[in-house]
Amino acid sequence: MTIGQTVTRKEDHRLLTGRGRFVSDLQLSPMRHVAFTRSIVAHAHLATVDTSEALALPGVRAVFTGADIPLALRAQSALPGYVETDQPALAVGKVRFVGEALAAVIADNRYLAEDGAELVDVDYSPLQPLVDATGVVIDPVHDDAPDNILIRRIFENGDVDTALEQSAVVVRRDLTTNRHAGNPMECRATVALWEDHRNLTVWSGTQVPHLVRNMLAEQLDLPEGNIRVIAPDVGGGFGVKAVLYPEDLAICAMARTMPGTALKWVEDRVEHLHAASHARDHRYEVEAGFADDGELLALRVDATCNVGAYSVYPWTVGIEPLMAGGLFTGPYRLEHYRCLVRGVTTNTSPSGPYRGVARPATVFAMEAVLDSGARALGISGADIRRRNLIAPDDIPYRMPTRLVDDSGHYLECFEKALDLVEHNGLDYDGLRAEQQKRVAHGGNPIGIGFAVYNELTGLGRAASAGPRMPFRTGHEACTVRINPEGSVTVLSGVTSQGQGLETTLAQVVAGTIGVGFDDVQVRYGDTNESLWGFGAFSSRQAVIAGGAALQSAEAVLEKALALAAELYEANADDLTLTNGNIMVAGSPQPIGTLADVARVAYLESNRLPAGFEPGLESTRFYDPVMGAFAAGAQVVVIEIERSTGELKILDLVCVEDSGRILNPQIVEGQVAGSLAQGIGGALYEHLVYDDDGNLKTGTLLDYLMPTSAETPEFTLGHLTHHADNPLGVRGVGEGGTLGPAATLAGAVADAVGLEIDELPITPARIWDGLAQQGGAGT
Amino acid sequence: MRVEFTVNGSAESVEVEPRVTLADALREELGLTGTHLGCEHGVCGACTVLVDEQPVRSCLMLAVQARNASLQTIEGLERENGSLHPLQQAFSDCHGLQCGFCTPGMVMTAVHLLATNPDPTRDEIRAEMSANICRCTGYNSIVDSVEQAATARGALARDD
Ligand code: FES
Ligand code: FES
Predict the structure, then answer these.
(1) Which residues does chain B have within 8 Å of residue A24's beta carbon, measured at their own beta carbons?
(2) Do B109 and B148 reside in the same domain of the chain?
(3) Which fold has domain A12-127+187-234+241-275?
(4) Window 674-693 of A, Cβ < 8 Å to B
(5) Does B101 contact A27 at a Cβ distance shorter than 8 Å?
(6) Are residues B106 and B135 in the same domain?
(7) Is the interface score ipTM higher than 0.85?
(8) Which residue of B135, B141, B142 to mutate against A (max A Cβ within 10 Å)?
(9) How do beta strands A488-492 and A520-524 pair?
């Protein structure tokens, strides 16, 4: 049994020896290279786009503008209050953010393509740009939305007004979270090759190849079978690559004009920061009412998400606002809830999915009001959480947004996290004593912050209904094939951007069938190989694709054993497979091997029992229908350097309920990586636009990502309450990102009494706050 | 322009325009695509190779500047018998890579670290490896990897 063990990842050897196959590594012949001319103005009518100088450059083969490619993406949702808008493949008539592609140059190499892109002469007639979602609209971004609001929805339960009136205390926080982004180390890349006018192969670093095929087929008016989408090795995704971008569409359309010639586009980091999807630019106004004993009685929330210039395809601008409103209350019991969410379009890069979608922001907001409530009531931050967390006895718990929580293990996570806190030999109580000592005797203040959260993972068809898009993402398919010599090939609809699916699916299938891990080969990311997969998002792959792999493996095992029973004249119920050997109950000696049976299935049909279909293969779809909530808690201990405002993390504990763990090392890696991204978002990362809509953080020199020097050691703990799905797993891909903004802000307030209302928590922000208190530099 | 250098011990000669970066020459001219480009402006370290044993951001160096130099890239680390370099092995053992995009640069930076400081502390590893950005791992497993490789190499040296 390899399920549940750490094994050497199948992907490691090629990635460690320089033999990974990323899209940017692809060289085909003939191949030409694409560079985009991007808008340098945030909001303008395009008067003229003159390509003549670019076309005259030797080595430039063609130049396309928006007028040449009459295609547009239109993200759809049936939700009332959603305004549909178009995103053209290349801007036509108007540009809506700095970095928007408006022309594309095709040349013999990337250097020449970039030279050509610079020579495209654009005449802009500027409109009034708006980058702040709460600003006054002068020139709307889209004509169909004069107020710039592309989605508006109210989540409501109970009677909030009365409950607030009856509360012992009401606290109010106005919070702003910082626009930041997934920023995978591999930027976007696409290669498109048309065999003829009707057959297309696309290599893309996408997280969702089957969806991309589906969307391209519609856009290009082709049967799906004429399009093959291949996502080879991909250098991180985090949601950014779960979007179909206008550049992808433009490349496919342009390549169609030159069948037989591959077009390649490799995005650079400056383009990526300007034009790949952003996230988390939100404002929350929250009022929370509490009873004397700390019980949370009511929440009134007004949330504004800056969704950027376009509705990301296919997820729509609803992705962040709907998640924010739907999961704001997290793991806390609450009846009276009213949340108005709006998604406001601005002249900034579109916001889209990014690991944790909206919840790093909502957890920050929710934990902030709990901390304010605790302070107002004079109870501890730990106790106010204990008082309000959904408990196992409450399960299934119907949240005020009607989502049903199946977890309830929040308190257990939280207490375990508190137990694990340790710094310099001091445990939680010891650190509290040390904190008091420092208050009394001076020294840099220390603070402790908390966050408890739930992550809705592995969404089935019912759980993914919310956004009312024209498709439901609940299922995955998996084919398991036993080959004629007894090895196993798995064809899965998953994709991997580092999560190790090649390894975990092999573990699931090897363990289920009873063959060695090395005898299983997993192939994924190619629409011509696997039947169907929605791909990587919403922490769904281990749950759903894992479930499909398990059920498919079970089905093919049953078939193999049925054949073995016939061949060896045994009762199928007495047979098992171990390490490729067929064992019969009660005997230590194998009676045959899977290889023998497989050989008969494929090559010796003369030995097949009557009516037995040749071959050993099974394809199964799995859909969990609901989702699996994963509980998580984080506790952070920090020290603040009074003279500089610098914040140092002394300990960061994260405890998550991962359900059944398929591979401990991979699970820990997911949690650790998402914690680091959470820390980045909380302390460093910030996409800043000036009022004219210029991105001021357009390089990695200005957009600060944490390195090994800024990232602390983590203390990780796990609960393993099996979820209600065939493998018992819960998703672990995103939870880590949910806590750090909340815990770190809470810890600053705990240390120095400074309420953090705006992210990121920079030393300057802390220092300014201390200066206002009269305490800086002391 | 014709530029000659050695890469992983073999003599190479490429014809490149003066503006072509070393990274592009390695990747496009020599097909050594293990060297990755994460930012192309000298910050992320994904493109790190060793030039005369010094770590260099090959996105910032022109191929012509490497004339007659001795270059080492990720492709040269594996032993002839197919076994992994202790750092490669340690990255695999300690899960020091997820997507593997930053990994070649990380490993080359670590090769230089262990060549100049065979027995680094965790803090020293953190400081040196902070030249490279990884978006996947959260770094602790990378620090573990370098630490394990240092220990393994120490043990090897003692065995000799
Ligand atoms: S690609 Fe050279 S430092 Fe980022
Ligand atoms: S392993 Fe993905 S960036 Fe480091």
Answers:
(1) 33, 36-37
(2) yes
(3) Aldehyde Oxidoreductase; domain 3 (3.90.1170)
(4) 674-677
(5) no
(6) yes
(7) yes
(8) B135
(9) parallel
| The pairing of beta strand A282-290 with beta strand A296-308 | antiparallel
| Domain extent listing, chain A | 12-127+187-234+241-275, 361-458+627-773, 476-622
Over the Cα atoms of chain B, what is R_g?
16
Question: Does residue A218 belong to the interface with chain B, where contact is any CB pair within 8 Å?
Answer: no
Q: Look up residue A82 and give its DSSP letter.
A: B
A702 touches chain B (CB under 8 A): no
pLDDT in tens, B29-82: 999 999 999 999 999 999 999 999 999 999 999 999 999 999 999 999 998 888
Residue A421 · residue A635 · CB < 8 Å? yes
How far is A470 from A474, CA to CA, in rounded Å?
13
Q: Are B102 and B134 in contact (CB under 8 A)?
A: yes
A274 Cα–ligand 1 center, Å:
18
- pLDDT, one tens digit per residue, over A604-630 is 999 999 999 999 999 999 998 888 889
Contact flag B35-A18 (C-beta cutoff 8 Å): yes
Q: What pLDDT, on a 0 to 100 scale, did the predictor assign at position A775?
A: 54
Q: What domain range includes position B133?
A: 86-159
User: pLDDT tens across A566-598, in order?
Assistant: 999 999 999 999 999 999 999 999 999 999 999
Residue nearest to ligand 2 atom 3, measured at CA: B134
- State residue A472's pLDDT score: 85
Instruction: Give me the number of domains chain B comprises.
Output: 2
Beta strand pairing call for B10-15 and B2-7: antiparallel
State the distance from the centre of ligand 1 to the C-alpha of B101, rounded, in angstroms. Answer: 12
CATH topology of domain A476-622: Aldehyde Oxidoreductase; domain 4 (3.30.365)
* Two tokens, residue B51: 């030039």
Q: pLDDT tens, A106-161?
A: 999 999 999 999 999 999 999 999 999 999 999 999 999 999 999 999 999 999 99
